[in-house]
Amino acid sequence: MLLVNNPGDWGHVYAPLLHAHWHGCTPTDLIFPMFLFIVGVSIALALNPRVQRGDARPALARGVLARAARIVGLGLLLHLCAWWAFDLAHYRVMGVLQRIGLCFGAAGLCALWLPSRAQWGVLIALIAGYAVLLAGGGSYEPYLNLASRFDSRVLGVHVYELQAGSGRGHDPEGLLSTLGALATTLLGLRAGDWLRAGRMRALWIAGAACMALGFAASYAQPFNKNLWTPAYVLWTGGIACWVLAAFHVAIDRRGWPALGRAFGVNAIAAYAGSAFLLYALVAAGGLEPLYRHAFADWMTPRFGPTLPSLAYALAFVALWWAVVRLLDAQRIYFKI
What we know:
The chain contains 14 helices and two strands. It is mostly helical. It has one domain. Strand 1 (161-162) and strand 2 (169-170) form a beta hairpin. The protein starts with a helix and ends in a 7-residue tail after the last helix. The mean pLDDT is 96.
C-alpha cells in the first residue's frame, strides 16, 4: 500500500504499480483484497480459539465492535486531515480504513455467532446476491452502475470523486461495494480456519477453484476493484489462498525469514503514520520540492521521469520500514 500510494510523480508510474483504470486487475489491484483476506484470517486465529475455550461471546462481540469503530474513526480522522491538507471542496466519508473497520466488525460477528456452514452460506449469498444487484443495475460503467448511484444517493457529495456537470459521484470504497469486500473477508475467515486445522490441501484446492470460477465469471461481470465485483472477489481470493499457503509453508514450516514481520506487527502505525506524514508535507508545501531536489532533478536527465518516481516511492517505504523495525526492536506496538 505504501509503495503504490506514494509515487513521486503520479504522471509517471510503472503500469504494474497502477490500479486498472476501470475493468481489469493489475498487481496493484491485488493489495487491498489480500489485506481484507488477511483480516479474515486474523479473526480466525484470534477469536476462534477464545470461543472454543468458552469465553463469553457477548463480551467478545463488544470488543469486536469497539475495535471496528476505532478503525472507522481513524479513517475518518485521516480523511479530515486530507480534506484540510489538500484543501478539498468536500469531505469524503468512506475510505480504506472505514471499509476495513466495517468488514472486520461484520466478519468478527459472523465468526462469533455463526457455525462454519452458516458462514459459507453468508459468503455464497453475498457473492450471488451482489452479482444479481449489479446485473439488475443495468450498467457497469463509471457513475452509471448501481453501486455508484447508491453511494451518490446516500452520501451525496461526500464521495471520492464527482463527475463534472452531471453531479454523479463514485467512491471505490463505497457502501454498496462493501458487500463484495465483506465476501473477501469471509473467505479469509474460512481460510484461517483451514490454516489452524493444518488443512493445507483445502487451501490449495480452494485457491484453484476460486481462480477458475472468478475467471469464468469475469465473462459475465468483469474484474473490477472499484465495484468489487464477484468475479474480482473469487479471482483475488483464490490468489490470496495460494499466497497464504505458500508463505505458511515457506516461513512457518521451512523456516524462511519473515522479512515483513515488522510491518505486520505495526501495520496501523505504518499506514496511518505514513498518511499523516504525506498530509503534513503537502500542507507545508514541501512534497514537490523534496521530490524535485532529492530525486527528479538529477535522475530524470539520466533515466527518464519514471524511475525517479519509483525511487521516491521505494525511499518512502524504506523510511517506514526503518521506523517499524525500530518500534519492533523496542517492543512498541500501536494497536487500536
